[in-house]
Amino acid sequence: MSSEKFETLDEDVQSLFEVLQRKCTGRLEQCFGEEKKQIIADVERGIDEARQAIFEMEAEARAAPGSFRMEMMGRVRKHQDTASKLALLIKSSKQAEMSLASTRGAMFENHSVGHNQNRGIDNALQTTVRQGTAILERTSQSIQRTTQVALESEEIGTGVVQELSQQREVLVRTRDRLTDTDAELGRSRRILRSMSRVALTNKLVLIGIILLEICILAGLVYYKFFS
After folding, report:
1. Residue closest to 60 by CA, chosen among 96, 130, 7
2. Three-state secondary structure string covering 121-154
3. Cα–Cα distances in angstroms (integers) from residue 130 to residues 48, 113, 156, in the given order
4. Which residue among 39, 166, 189, 209 is buried most deeply as judged by most CB within 10 Å?
5. Distance of alpha carbon 126 from alpha carbon 147, whole angstroms
6. Stronger pLDDT, 134 or 183, i.e. the higher one
7. Exposed (0-12), middle (13-18) or buried (19+): which is 169, by Cβ within 10 Å?
């Protein structure tokens, strides 16, 4: 299971993203000028806070046991994707604001405030927003693909580590069995040598007994026939 610190950071980041997303999808699209700049600054500060919390979450995930690390890293990457999307949206809004300010400055310099020029500003703003949205979508797709590849690579790495661990256990058991077998062979050799010595001793004793019996028979024969 994940650590208590990781879960707390995860909840904080989710809550912070909800607030930032409401600002981006609600107030940011409905305001202009200084108010919009203030909202952009607030969102950028929120993104920085979220990234710091995500960094701490990643450190907790990397220190977690292997069986939980993959799920925790998946949540970290999801938060990183969200932070990147918000950052791109803010960048797009800032570019649109700068484009609008530049267009308005050019209008004021040319002293032209007619209806067609206002429409031109709106068209430029819409074009910039569409371009920013397209960039955001492409970046999001690229991030998703990268995340998928990273998850697959991590899963493969985990499988390889587990397989190597199993092979190590097999090798250790095989080594232990070989050690036991070698010990048994040593004991068998000692027993065989002991049995060989006993057999040799028995043979020598038997030969001695036979020689003694021959001597006794020879003595008896001599005593009976030659004395």
Report:
1. 7
2. HHHHHHHHHHHHHHHHHHHHHHHHHHHHHHHHHH
3. 25, 25, 39
4. 39
5. 31
6. 183
7. exposed
In angstroms, how far is CA 143 from the centroid of its own chain?
18
Q: What tokens appear for 79 in the block?
A: 């938060």
**Total Cβ atoms within 10 A of residue 85:** 18
How would residue 137 be classed by pLDDT, with cut points 50, 70 and 90?
confident
d(CA 226, CA 203): 34
Nearest by Cα to 75 from 88, 90, 56: 56
- Evaluate the CA torsion angle 174, 180, 183, 185 in order and state its sign: negative
Collapse the DSSP code of 114 into the 3-class scheme (helix H, G, I; strand E, B; otherwise coil) and give the result. coil
- Taking a C-beta distance cutoff of 8 angstroms, is the pair 79, 21 a contact? no
What is the value of pTM for the model shown? 0.43
**Structure confidence by residue, pLDDT tens digits, 175-223:** 888 888 888 888 888 999 889 898 899 999 999 999 999 999 888 888 8
